[in-house]
Design brief:
The protein is α+β, with helices and mostly antiparallel strands. The protein has 4 domains: about 90 residues, Uridine Diphospho-n-acetylenolpyruvylglucosamine Reductase, domain 2, CATH 3.30.43.10; about 120 residues, Uridine Diphospho-n-acetylenolpyruvylglucosamine Reductase, domain 3; about 120 residues, Alpha-Beta Plaits (2-Layer Sandwich); about 90 residues, Alpha-Beta Plaits (2-Layer Sandwich), CATH 3.30.70.2740. About 35% of the residues lie in helices and about 20% in strands. The strands form 4 sheets. Strands 12, 13, 14, 15, 16, 17, 18 and 19 form an 8-stranded antiparallel β-sheet that branches. A hairpin with a 5-residue loop joins strand 8 and strand 9. Helix 1 packs antiparallel against helix 3, helix 8 packs antiparallel against helix 13 and helix 9 packs across helix 12. The longest helix is centred in the middle third of the chain and has 15 residues. It starts with 13 loop residues before the first helix and ends in a 14-residue tail after the last helix. The relative contact order is 0.11.
Length: about 475
């Protein structure tokens, strides 16, 4: 449908019923109000919608879903709209209604003895971390978009982030869910139990489903003791294999102390220094870096001695070329910023193709080397910018346009680049999506990677729970 054509009209009276149900804060129809909800973070997709629903309670959402289901209208759930794969963007038809859960942002309960908190889906991830900290606890899920991403969004995508090596993905941090189903019924699965062996674990269907089975409206989240001691090291390493060897040294010495282990290329660190205000980098001029974050809830855990001992061993072995240890909270934050600003620095450098992939941890160095070589052979001058969670096998195998190449021309090769990377990933026994999900961007890969019985089961689950196909259509499952 051409952009200058109005979207198809809603069924008579539906808009009035939604307006009466949701109130003036809960229904937006103006072009200016809708604009922020129609494009994804990477500007890969620009959709259209006749209106935005912003329910203030679960009951309002449930009734709105019932009305839309009766009218056969598709719904697109949206949290912080930070998807890297277009998972929360409506299509161009103008028929899909966007549903923002931003107003469902209450903390319903927190129990430091049970080590759980029950929060609504619209609560921003950073706020969830702060609420846990105020209660003397830790909610460990941490990622670059945590100031915008919401609890419902990170659960719907099974987000990972920086601390997966220690605490697991979002799925491992969830005990129970509340979900509005496609017919408007509310499933209350907000159980705080560590053990509940009563049939199918329905909660796990909705985590990672990217809103295609219903709306996550609240969750019981696991908490942990707050760290009493932390240490952060920033290291220049010889190569990718040396980075993995350093991870093994820390893991073998005290696996429970390793909270994060992040790899960065010299190219990506250089982009950070070039484009991010105040982006100074210690130990400049190297080709490979790692950030190692240690934490313990034990008093006098001896993490500084552990950090120094392991780094000394690695220096003697030639694996670490140079290293610095953060001496204050400000220094540690500055070191983490180098890693967290990688996506923004790449964006400012030019066009890039992002590959969120995972392989067994032992194969990460081979992934980086082989994928980089294959992409250089595909497009001479291409600049590989691999970075990410070496400790759990998830590398963002990103590729930056060659210097001087037109950005649009480079992005036109996105499919070829992703296929080149994925061929290496497949050979190494990996996955074409590690933590970003499928969204709209990667649905065409599902048949090849997850076809046969696996994809058939997914389709049957979708058909059983959402027989009209109204929940976030066009995402995850190929058409």
């Amino acid at each position: 449908m051409p952009d200058d054509q109005p979207p198809p009209p809603l069924p008579p009276g539906l808009l009035d019923r939604l307006a009466s149900l949701l109130g003036p804060r809960g229904l937006l129809t103006g072009a200016g109000d809708l604009a922020p909800y129609l494009a994804d973070w990477r500007n890969l997709y620009q959709g259209r919608t006749p209106c935005l629903l912003r329910p203030g309670t679960v009951e309002e959402l449930a009734e709105a879903v019932r009305l839309c289901a009766a009218a056969g209208l598709p719904l697109v759930p949206q949290g912080g709209n930070t998807s890297m794969v277009g998972g929360a963007t409506p299509d161009e038809s103008g028929r899909q209604l966007v549903v923002s859960l931003a107003r469902l942002n209450r903390v319903r309960d927190i129990d430091p003895l049970d080590m759980t908190m029950t929060v609504e889906a619209g609560l921003v991830l950073k706020a969830a971390q702060e609420v846990a900290a105020e209660a003397g606890c830790l909610f460990p899920l941490s990622l670059g978009a945590e100031g915008t991403a919401t609890v419902g969004g990170v659960l719907s995508t099974n987000a990972g982030g920086n601390t997966t090596v220690r605490y697991g993905n979002a799925r491992e941090l969830m005990l129970g869910l509340e979900v509005v189903l496609p017919d408007g019924r509310v499933w209350d699965g907000l159980r705080r139990l560590r053990k509940d062996n009563t049939g199918y674990a329905l909660r796990h269907l909705f985590v990672g489903a990217e809103g295609t089975l219903g709306f996550i409206t609240a969750a019981v989240l696991r908490l942990f003791p707050r760290p009493r001691e932390t240490e952060l090291g920033f290291c220049a390493v010889r190569d990718e294999a040396a980075a993995l060897a350093l991870f093994r040294r820390f893991r073998d010495r005290d696996e429970g102390a390793v909270r994060a282990f992040e790899y960065m290329s010299g190219t990506g660190v250089g982009f950070y220094a070039r484009h991010i205000e105040g982006g100074s980098v210690p130990l400049p001029g190297h080709d490979h870096y790692v950030l190692v974050d240690l934490a313990s809830s034990r008093p006098e855990a001896g993490l500084r001695a552990l950090m120094e001992a392991v780094l000394e061993e690695a220096l003697e072995a030639g694996e670490v070329l140079d290293a610095t240890i953060g001496e204050s909270e400000a220094q540690r934050a500055a070191l983490w910023r180098i890693r967290e600003e990688h996506p923004e620095a790449q964006k400012r450098e030019g066009a890039s193709v992002k590959n969120d992939v995972s392989v067994p941890v032992s194969r990460v160095p081979e992934l980086i080397r082989r994928a980089s070589e294959a992409c250089r052979a595909l497009i001479p001058g291409i600049r590989p910018v691999p970075f990410g969670h070496m400790g759990d096998g998830n590398i963002h195998m990103n590729l930056e346009q060659p210097e001087g190449m037109d950005g649009a021309a480079f992005l036109a090769r996105s499919h070829d680049i992703m296929e080149t990377v994925n061929a290496v990933v497949r050979d190494l026994g990996g996955s074409f999506s590690a933590e970003h999900g499928i969204g709209r961007l990667k649905t065409d890969m599902m048949e090849d990677w997850r076809g046969g019985a696996e994809l058939d089961l997914m389709r049957r689950i979708k058909a059983a729970i959402d027989p009209q196909g109204l929940m976030n259509p066009g995402k995850v499952l190929p058409g």
